[in-house]
Amino acid sequence: MNFEDWIGRELSASDRLEEGLATRWLATFDLPSPEPAVMPQGIHFALCPPDAPTATLGEDGHPARDERPNSFLPPFPMPRRMWASSAMEFHSPIAVGAVIKRTSRIASIKEKHGGSGRLAFVNVDHETYANGTLSVRETQTLVYRDAAAADAPLSPTEISNSTFDPSAWGASCTITPDPRLLFRYSALTFNTHRIHYDAPYASAVERYRGLVVHGPLTASLLLQLAASELGENRVRRFEFRGMSPAIAGEPLHLAMRKGAEGYELGAFADDGRQVTKASASI
């Protein structure tokens, strides 16, 4: 099948940042209500979420993909999907009550073979408008890969005797994302991927050591660290890339420091393994 036929396909969605959603987002992260009612950066992850009917979900919880002309994402035969990275430009903050419009477009598709087998990379361009004004422009990279063998070692490997050293970072904090946080974030973003809430599936089928912390959840936490150091809605550009799975119930170290051309951020497991690499500029 020629998956290049999917390049250029577009999807439009609309939403409203209702007060209830805003309140639940703030409660999930233990954040105070902002004055004025302008939301922290990262709230766009919870807007215009996928709304596929339950009957159309695949085994992993993602909306099933097929060959129909109106199918947005290409139906690769590789069953595993990951949100690999995102590059964002923040143009204007999103206020509570704003009417949201989002246009998504398949920008590129690339297939290759790696050490774990066949891979496909899909870049999706998103433009999110709030009350008619461009708020966030984002390029999201999705990766599709073959399923792991039923007896494959659990990922990531067991925690070693190493530890994360915060001394090289200007600011850092530690949280332990537990299943309650993952459940709330899945609910906020209408994300039904089972690796975030179904522990038996995550380990037996996708071969993770436990429930996996969402990539955009970690990105949201890093944006909150940046806001605590720089001020709310100061970040203009933000990029993040997943390096290794973060596992629920294990400490997650968030760190930030000034770099030559902006700010470097990262999330690290307790043993120093880097989970997320990120950068920001204001």
For the structure shown, list the relevant keywords.
single chain, alpha+beta, 4 helices, globular, 282 residues, 15% helix, 10 strands
The dominant shape is globular
For the secondary structure, the number of strands is 10
Contiguous runs where pLDDT drops below 50 for at least 5 residues: none
Proportion of beta-strand residues: 25-35%
- What integer is the average pLDDT? 93
Describe this structure in words.
The protein has 282 residues and is of the alpha+beta class. Helix content is 15%, strand content 34%. It contains four helices and ten strands. It has a ten-stranded antiparallel β-sheet with strand order 1-3-4-5-2-7-10-9-8-6, covered by helices on one side. Helix 1 packs antiparallel against helix 2. The protein is globular.
Can you give me a brief rundown of this structure?
The chain is of the alpha+beta class. The chain contains four helices and ten strands. A hairpin with a 2-residue loop joins β3 and β4 (117-130).
Layout of helices and strands, plus pairs?
Layout: E1 10-16, H1 19-28, E2 80-90, E3 99-114, E4 117-130, E5 133-145, E6 171-175, H2 179-189, H3 199-204, H4 215-230, E7 237-242, E8 252-259, E9 262-269, E10 274-281
Antiparallel strand pairs: 1-3, 2-5, 2-7, 3-4, 4-5, 6-8, 7-10, 8-9, 9-10
Helix pairs in contact: 1-2
